[in-house]
Amino acid sequence: MVLSGKYKSGGKILHLANERFAVPEIFFNPSDKGIQEMQIPEAIVYSIQNLPEEMQPHYFAGGNSLYPGFRDQVYSEVRCLTPIDYDVSVVLPEDPIIYAWEGGKFISENDDFDDMVVTREDYEENGHSVSP
User: Has this prediction a pTM greater than 0.85?
Assistant: First the structure.
């Protein structure tokens, strides 16, 4: 399937001028717009630090990574936030919009998939503390 990036939803086209540069900048400086949240690089480092050690080398991003210069800016800012002896690599997949979906599809085809997931019934019975 080839995605052209054009949506056929009957919606309107929104033409952007300077906003197309300002919007991605919110990811890196949310406080400039009064949003008191972590910057994307801080959130990446925080998320990776909270993963099990064996999963730390792997982290995925979606369609936002298509903004011009996004990958380079994420790399330089994450590099500044991590110890010098850590390898930092930011890779832009061929199609970042469906990359996470493809990963989920790949995992769902794994023979051990049923052992990796929590059912709705388990979650409703045990709450957020349930584990597969």
Answer: no
